């Protein structure tokens, strides 16, 4: 299966369940694996057939930052829904990491896979 990948997309946003988290920005890091047939783009060398990782990155940053969210699970689910519906991706793996959330861990996070 062909994929388009985005690694370590940093999104600074209001995220967290505790009161002290609702007045600060924290960084989330997203890894995205998106099923996409890359052959039409490669055969024609035409951007029109490519899943644009820049467009996806910008859209997801807007989505995640438009309002405060408590759980990183919610972030992952909203990101997956957006990719399946707006970008017509048939399958996606979304990893959301929140470094700094647990001081004794280098990072913590969630991973989901969704398809339509
Ligand atoms: N499974 C989760 N556990 C926790 C979350 C979360 O989003 N998913 N969030 C918190 C707090 O916001 C924490 O990150 C503050 O450091 C705790 N557990």
UniProtKB/TrEMBL annotation:
Keywords: Folate biosynthesis, Lyase
SUPFAM superfamilies tied to this protein: Tetrahydrobiopterin biosynthesis enzymes-like
GO terms, molecular function: dihydroneopterin aldolase activity
Pathway assignment: Cofactor biosynthesis; tetrahydrofolate biosynthesis; 2-amino-4-hydroxy-6-hydroxymethyl-7,8-dihydropteridine diphosphate from 7,8-dihydroneopterin triphosphate: step 3/4
SMART domains, A to Z: FolB
Start and end residues of each Dihydroneopterin aldolase/epimerase domain: 4-114
Keyword field contains Nucleotidyltransferase: no
A Pfam family matched in the record: FolB
Organism superkingdom: Bacteria
EC code(s) of this entry: 4.1.2.25
Record's catalysed reaction(s): 7,8-dihydroneopterin = 6-hydroxymethyl-7,8-dihydropterin + glycolaldehyde
The keyword Cell division is assigned to this record: no
Family: Belongs to the DHNA family.
Annotated function: Catalyzes the conversion of 7,8-dihydroneopterin to 6-hydroxymethyl-7,8-dihydropterin.
Protein's name according to its UniProt entry: 7,8-dihydroneopterin aldolase
Species in which this protein is naturally found: Shewanella cutis
Organism lineage string: Bacteria, Pseudomonadati, Pseudomonadota, Gammaproteobacteria, Alteromonadales
The gene coding this protein: folB
């Amino acid at each position: 299966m062909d994929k388009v990948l985005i690694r370590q997309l940093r999104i600074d946003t209001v995220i967290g369940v505790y009161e002290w988290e609702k007045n600060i920005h924290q960084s989330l890091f997203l890894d995205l694996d998106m099923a996409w047939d890359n052959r039409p783009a490669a055969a024609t060398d035409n951007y029109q057939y490519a899943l644009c990782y820049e467009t996806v990155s910008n859209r997801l940053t807007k989505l995640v930052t438009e309002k405060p969210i408590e759980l990183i699970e919610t972030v992952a689910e909203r990101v997956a829904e957006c990719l399946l519906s707006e970008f017509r991706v048939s399958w996606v793996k979304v990893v959301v990491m929140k470094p700094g959330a647990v001081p004794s861990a280098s990072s913590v996070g969630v991973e989901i896979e969704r398809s339509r």
